[in-house]
From TrEMBL:
Binds 1 zinc ion per subunit. It comes from Diatraea saccharalis (sugarcane borer). Residues 35-169 form the Superoxide dismutase copper/zinc binding domain. Keywords: Antioxidant, Copper, Disulfide bond, Metal-binding, Oxidoreductase, Signal, Zinc. Its EC number is 1.15.1.1. This is Superoxide dismutase [Cu-Zn]. The keyword rRNA-binding does not apply. Belongs to the Cu-Zn superoxide dismutase family.
Length: 172
């Protein structure tokens, strides 16, 4: 009976820890042609989110990478809405103080059509007002200009072009 009680308390503590907060989430990106990848979002002790993963299938170059407001893939990547922007800020660079929460900048693909991603973001969260769970990640067709060009789309989308691949961020 004592072993059962210890097991019950141990299992209960594990579930209570998970119920208190999410610590890791993931997204599986799928898209046009052979573009696909997996990206993991992990909370750090200093309340930031580390973003790590690999995406394959795009020619060498830089491509916009954003968290979008909706996790709706019913119309493909086009149904994911705008960049996640709960603070109603202008589009910007990931290091800008004023930016969309979903502005993650560009990912860089090498000559082997692979982008290795590893950075930490101070505005993303896996809980609270900046919670990205259930939202979509979108890889775009062009580089993000960080809202710094004269193009009409620069201040809203970074003029990053069409949506090439996407997926919904979920619990791991």
């Amino acid at each position: 009976m004592l072993k059962f009680f210890v097991l019950l308390v141990t299992v209960g503590a594990a579930f209570a820890h998970h119920a208190d907060g999410v610590h890791t989430a993931t997204v599986v990106l799928t898209g046009n042609d052979d573009v696909h990848g997996t990206v993991t979002f992990t909370e750090t002790e200093d309340h930031k989110v580390r973003v790590q993963g690999t995406i394959t299938g795009m020619p060498a170059g830089e491509y916009g990478f954003h968290v979008h407001e909706k996790g709706d893939l019913s119309g493909g990547c086009m149904s994911t809405g705008s960049h996640f922007n709960p603070e109603k800020q202008p589009h910007g660079h990931p290091n800008d103080q004023a930016r969309h929460v979903g502005d993650l900048g560009n990912v860089i693909f090498n000559d082997q059509k692979v982008a290795n991603i590893d950075f930490t973001d101070s505005q993303l969260s896996l809980r609270g007002a900046h919670n990205i769970l259930g939202r979509a990640v979108v890889l775009h067709a062009k580089a993000d200009d960080y809202g710094r060009s004269d193009h009409p789309d620069s201040r809203t989308t970074g003029n990053a072009g069409g949506r090439v691949a996407c997926g919904v961020i979920g619990l791991m």
